[in-house]
Each structure stands twice: as C-alpha cells, then as structure tokens.
Write a structure and sequence with these properties.
- By secondary structure, this protein is α/β, with parallel strands linked by helices.
- It contains eight helices and seven strands, in the order ββαααααβαβαβαββ.
- The chain has a seven-stranded parallel sheet with strand order 1-4-3-2-5-6-7.
- 38% of the residues are buried.
Length: 272
C-alpha cells in the first residue's frame, strides 16, 4: 500500500537529532523493521544508461548521471524555496512543490538539452519529446539490484516488516515495484507526496515512523545515497549506508550506524 500522512504540522512528530558519532551506538535498541530508499538503493537508476547510450551514442552515461543529479537538485529547490513574506508562517503547502514524476521529466529535459548543446538545429522539440518519452518509460521499468529480492525474501522469512520510503510519487512507485516483481515482498510503499516535502525534510522521514508504528531508532533505514543516510540518521533512524561506489561519507560529523557495499548487510541487524 502507499502510505500517506496528514499534510499539517499537527500530524507529524519530529524526532530528536542523533548525537554526532563516528561509531555505531552499542546500546541502541534492537530494530524491528526495515525501510529502504527506492531509487539507487533497491532500483538501479543508472540502468537507463543503456537506452540513453542508444539515443545519444557516446554520451549515454553522462546523460544518466546528469539526469539523476539534476533530479535531486530539483527536489531540494522545491522543498526549501519560499516566496517573500512566507518565512515564519506555517509550512503547510510548499508553493513550488511538484510531484516527483514531473521533476524527473523536467530534469531529463534539462540533461538532454545540456548534452545536446541546447541547439535547436541539433535536436528539435519533437525529437527531445520523443527521447524524453522513451527514457521516462524506461525509468518506470528500472531494474532491481541483483541482491534486492534475496534480501527482502530473507527479511520476510524472519518476520521483519519491510517497506520503501521514497521521494517517488505513488504512480511511479507502484509501476517500478510491480515491474521488478517485489510487491509481494513489501509491507509498505511510502511516498512523500502527501506531505509535499522531499527528503531530507523531517516530515518525509516521519512518514516511515507513522507507517511502522515504532520510534525511528527501532527502524533500519537503508539507502545508497549518503545524503539520504545522513538525513535519516539525523532524524533518528538506525541507518545502513550501502556504499556500492566506494565513496567517502558526508563530512558533517555524523556516521551511519553501519556501512556496507551490498544490501545483504541489513540481515546482520536481524540474526536468523
């Protein structure tokens, strides 16, 4: 199911920020549920690179990377920006919010224009629209990472509730989960769309707490995005950063509870 939350402050409880630490807390309570980020964590967002390479020979990988970066940049822009006179007023409806599908499409148009040189003589509007339609269709059919099904199956066998907490809008999430064949392995598919704040806003992370019915420290939040793992840690979640690319973590004084290169590390939180 897609879990949504009331779009006002009275329906959201904020968790205390975790203390800065460079090592896992050994006195933390045992977790009892797992929430996964979707794009880049369960689903390979760069699997569209193959199609992008077909459409833009020699530039497909660059297009895919730019598309993803601009997509995340847009989520931050619409979450944090306000008009003059709105500061200090109740933040009920962010004025520039747009659903994730719209931001993803806008980010793709930007990426194509930049890769193609923004020259109408090189790439006209009709061709851009055709390329966008093809790549957006592929985005709704992203491949799951190879270890996703195995890990979710193992968690189910151990009786651990599982879910997705994602920036994706309900339609996009339903499509990608169904296409990957993971629907039967997830108890919750949670979209930030109802609260109209993208991660790392605390109202986005609060959705997971309300869905699971447990405090954040008793929920493992799994993400391959270091900024997402950090935001979840600051909110109060027990965190696993899946560092597939061997990158350094964010240099802001807080470390994830655990770091690993594959999803199966989440099973270490729940010994069989």
């Amino acid at each position: 199911m897609v879990v949504q939350c009331r779009n006002d402050h009275s329906g959201i409880e904020y968790s205390a920020i975790m203390e800065n630490s460079h090592s896992p807390r050994h006195d933390a309570p045992a977790p009892r549920a797992v929430l996964f980020d979707a794009y880049g964590t369960l689903f390979d967002v760069y699997s569209v690179a193959q199609l992008a390479e077909q459409l833009f020979p020699g530039r497909g990988q660059a297009l895919s990377l730019l598309w993803r970066d601009k997509q995340i940049e847009y989520t931050r822009l619409v979450t944090t920006s306000r008009r003059y006179g709105q500061l200090g007023t109740p933040d009920i409806s962010p004025p520039f919010y747009r659903p994730f599908g719209e931001l993803t499409r806008a980010a793709l148009v930007y990426a194509i224009k930049k890769i193609a040189g923004n020259d109408p003589a090189t790439l006209g509007k009709a061709e851009i629209d055709s390329n966008v339609d093809q790549l957006m269709a592929q985005y709704r059919k992203l491949d799951a990472f190879g270890d996703a099904r195995e890990v979710l199956t193992a968690l189910n066998a151990r009786g651990i509730p599982t879910g997705i907490l994602s920036n994706g809008d309900p339609e996009m999430l339903s499509a990608v989960v169904r296409n990957a064949g993971l629907a039967d392995l997830l108890d919750h598919v949670i979209s930030v769309d109802r609260v109209r704040h993208y991660k790392t806003h605390p109202e986005a992370y609060a959705l997971g707490v309300h869905a699971i019915g447990a405090p954040p420290e008793k929920i493992v939040f799994v993400s391959s995005n270091s900024w997402d793992a950090l935001g979840a840690a600051w909110y109060g979640y027990t965190t696993l950063w899946v560092n597939r690319a061997g990158l350094p973590f964010e240099e802001l004084g807080t470390q994830p509870t655990r770091t690993a290169s594959t999803l199966d590390a989440v099973l270490e939180f729940f010994p069989a």
